[in-house]
Amino acid sequence: MPKIRTVYTCQNCNYQASHWVGQCPQCGEWNTFIEDVVVSQNSKSGSHAGKGVTIAPIQLSKISTKNIKRLSSNISEFDRVLGGGFVPGQVVLLAGEPGIGKSTILTDIAKSLGDKKILYVAGEESPDQIKIRAERMGYPAENLFILQESGVEQIISVAEAEKDLALIIVDSVQTIYSDEIAGISGSLPQVRGCTQLLTMAAKRTGIPVVLVGHVNKEGVVAGPKVLEHIVDTILYLEGDPQHMFRMLRTSKNRFGPVSEVGIFEMQEKGMKEVKNPSELFLEEHVAGTSGSCIAVVMEGYRPLLFEVQALTIRTSFGYPRRTASGFNANRLQVLVATIEKRTGIDLSGHDIYLNIAGGFKISEYAADLAVCIAVISSVKDLPIKEKSVVYGEVGLNGEVRRVSHTEKRSKEAKKLGFEIIISPETAKSLNEAVSKALSKGYNLDSGKHAKQNTTESKRYNAVKPV
Ligand code: TYD
Ligand code: MG
Predict the structure, then answer these.
(1) Which residues line ligand 1 (CB under 6 A)?
(2) Mean pLDDT of 93-119
(3) Nearest-ligand number for the alpha carbon of 104
(4) Can you give the pLDDT at residue 51?
(5) What distance in angstroms lies between residue 107's CA and the mean position of ligand 2's atoms?
């Protein structure tokens, strides 16, 4: 078994002491020491040094990856984020807010793994609760073995003794502890030390391990941000608990692409993968309503269509409100200022409410143009032309800027039957885009400010580098 030692580490210069000190003897900073753990391999299982073994570098081209056999979860959206399934000995951290559906998705994976044997370490729930969940999901759970144990050393010895284990699930990492480490379970040294021990066990046995980790309000895996360096893969399960859609994102993956996204729907009988997300998101979209605009946004390498909704009403008291749900409120303020200045539309007397339908969060700048058009469509009470989609970044000068993956976005829009694509390729300025998007041939170029901008931009274009 590897040895664990408690040390105190200076957060400023990384100096380590065996006991807590107020001032760091190395860098002189005060109150920078935190309790930490160091896990060291014993000489038998660690490096080859000192064993009389000749150590030589291996030519990379001679290393074959063909023999790596991935364990498919049989859920294509989950495999997509993993990069094709679990790699032997892979340690995956599944993070998310409490109640978002982490245990549910893992139960779904256990169900879809069929007869493959899974060890489920239950630290949060009793076996009864897990049984109720499985029953609710119509899962007989014959391949699922529950271990109600919090001691990490005991968990590892059970996992090593069990035969033919395909996967170990630890729900959650904040509930397990080691007697060798100081502090209560969930504390930084405990979580870090236990994760290191489990990672070593995973590498030794070749069994993939999924660790569940809760995130706090700031969206950081509670306390142990340090875990991110230990594990191979980090998946975040996100979504608005009020809505049924959930997104599974990769933020780190040693065995596959990052920024991949899997989309799921929380249903009565567990988490169902969504194979045609855009179609589903647009199901409730009512064409011909003012303030509604369809945006094409990239989620990882996949284009998705979202409905951006804006509602503008006259401000009743002095200061106009700008509220955004699923979109950055500061970005909305910038776009509102750009609209006012570059199109001449006065929004100072309007409250603006922006919403991304379905409870999603959009952070891509490619949604800017759709947000601007939705706001203008609402304030002018003119619907956007039917079968049109929008994407593009809006610059402070009112120009529509290029975004990545234009081909993929257009292809997805056309596949779903959209005919008019308003993008940096078809509109150079916000004014042009709005004129193309709004029905009844609304033309903003007649606006006072718009004219002024045209002269400004001409003057700017005249200055050429020499
Ligand atoms: P859970 O997986 O327990 O969340 P976490 O492990 O992330 O804390 O899921 C909690 C919610 O999911 C709970 O409010 C009930 C709901 N749920 C469903 O809607 N359908 C289901 O089939 C299951 C099992 C749970
Ligand atoms: Mg849970």
Answers:
(1) 96, 98-104, 133, 136-137, 266, 268-270
(2) 93
(3) 1
(4) 57
(5) 10
pLDDT for residue 287: 80
Mean pLDDT value of segment 5-29: 84
Ligand 1 pocket test: pick from 244, 266, 271, 273 the residue with the most ligand atoms within 8 Å of its Cβ.
Answer: 266
Count, residues in the chain: 466
Which residues contribute to the annotated binding site for ATP?
96-103
Q: Measured in angstroms, how far is the CA atom of residue 298 from the centroid of ligand 2?
A: 29
Mean pLDDT across the chain, nearest whole number?
Answer: 86
Q: What is the pLDDT of residue 149?
A: 92
Report the binding-site residues. 96-103
For 297-320, what is the mean pLDDT? 90
Task: Name the residue with the closest Cα to ligand 1, atom 18.
Answer: 268
Cα–Cα nearest to 344, from 464, 257, 451, 252: 451
Rounded to the nearest whole angstrom, what is the distance from the C-alpha of residue 104 to the centroid of ligand 1? 5
- Ligand having the closest approach to the CA of 120: 2
pTM: 0.78
Pairing of strands 33-40, 3-10: antiparallel
pLDDT (0 to 100) of residue 453? 43
Over the range 143-182, which residues count as b (16 or more CB within 10 Å of their CB) and which as e? bbbbbeebebbebbebbeeeeebbbbbbbbbbbbbbebbe
Q: Which of 245, 228, 337, 329 is nearest to 282 (CA)?
A: 245
Question: How many angstroms does the Cα of residue 246 sit away from the middle of ligand 1?
Answer: 12
Contact 374, 356 (CB under 8 A): no
> For ligand 1, what atom is nearest to the CA of residue 136?
22
Q: Is the pLDDT of residue 305 over 50?
A: yes
* pLDDT single digits (tens) 402-439: 999 999 999 999 988 999 999 999 999 999 999 999 87
User: How do beta strands 3-10 and 144-147 pair?
Assistant: unpaired
71 secondary structure, DSSP code: B
User: Is 438:288 a contact under the CB 8 Å cutoff?
Assistant: no
For 254-270, the DSSP string reads TTS-SS-EEEEEEETTE
pLDDT score, position 381: 92
87, 124, 117: which is closest to 102 by C-alpha?
A: 124
Please tell me the least confidently modeled range out of 211-225, 290-304, 305-319. Answer: 211-225
Q: Are residues 94 and 215 in contact, defined by beta-carbon separation less than 8 angstroms?
A: no
Ligand nearest to the CA of 214: 1
